[in-house]
Amino acid sequence: MSAVAERVTKYADRRRRAGELAERYDFAREPLALYGAVAEAQERVFARARADRPSVDALAAYVVRAALPDVMGAVMAAGTETLREAVLLRFHEGDLERIVTSWLRGDAQEGTDVFLARAATSPVLEALPEIARALPIAGEERFCPVCGGLPQVSLFVDSGEALVTGQRRLICARCASEWVYPRMTCVACGETESSKLVVLADPEQLPHLRIDACERCKRYIVSVDARLEGHAVPVVDELAALPLDIAAAKRGFTKVTPNLMGY
Ligand SMILES: [Zn+2]
Ligand SMILES: [Zn+2]
């Protein structure tokens, strides 16, 4: 696929899916509307990054100059009042380059800072895997084979072969790369003892989504079953798992990586 076709397909799919799920799930309408607006800005950022090809040393400065203005514009158009105010404050007072650098290092940050840094940087990393590959890896539990980031969502797909169980893949929260990961294995600590692995689901309301949690490390990830919903777009469907996120939090589990919307 050409770079242009790939970009159009990827971001158009994400926007279309956000619209579809917003219609279907009232509880996720607001975050999905914001996600759709941000994805539109990210598509422009992706195209710009492919053309500009910044160096890894200039990444944070590039993101501030060439990506953040579009993302901030999307927030001003579609964000909640609270988010709009927080973003305006960052724009006027924040050290934006530091916000991006801290996020790349995996430092603990305020929610608005994580949102801005991630929304603006991830399309650049998606556009330029060579930059993603050159990022320093912070901490041993990070394991995207391209950028060293943590997984955002787990995906079950049909293996295409009878008698073979479907494959499990993880999708990176930073650069959206996918890699194969064993089923029935905690994505945070590697636990494989089935008595320690907990599945939370709501088959009535969210048949193609579930939570895979671990009693040993108390972490969890949302899993999307593409065998049950063929046109799911995992990073977008993950945002609709909100009722499951709430159920997991009540049981003391925390997500391996909060999603772009912060939950
Ligand atoms: Zn990655
Ligand atoms: Zn675990």
Question: Can you offer a commentary on this structure?
Answer:
This protein has two domains: 132 residues, no CATH class; 105 residues, FdhE-like fold. 47% of the residues lie in helices and 14% in strands. Strands 1, 2, 3, 4, 5, 6 and 7 form a seven-stranded mixed beta sheet that branches. Helix 2 packs across helix 7 and helix 3 packs across helix 6. The longest helix is centred in the first third of the chain and has 24 residues. The radius of gyration is 18 Å and the shape is globular. The chain is α/β, with parallel strands linked by helices and 263 residues long. A hairpin with a 7-residue loop joins strand 4 and strand 5. The protein contains ten helices and seven strands. The protein binds zinc ion (ZN) (2 copies).
Topology (elements, then pairings):
Layout: H1 3-24, H2 29-52, H3 59-66, H4 68-78, H5 81-93, H6 96-105, H7 111-127, H8 129-134, E1 151-157, E2 167-172, E3 178-180, E4 197-201, E5 209-214, E6 219-225, H9 234-237, H10 242-250, E7 254-255
Parallel strand pairs: 1-6, 6-7
Antiparallel strand pairs: 1-2, 2-3, 4-5, 5-6
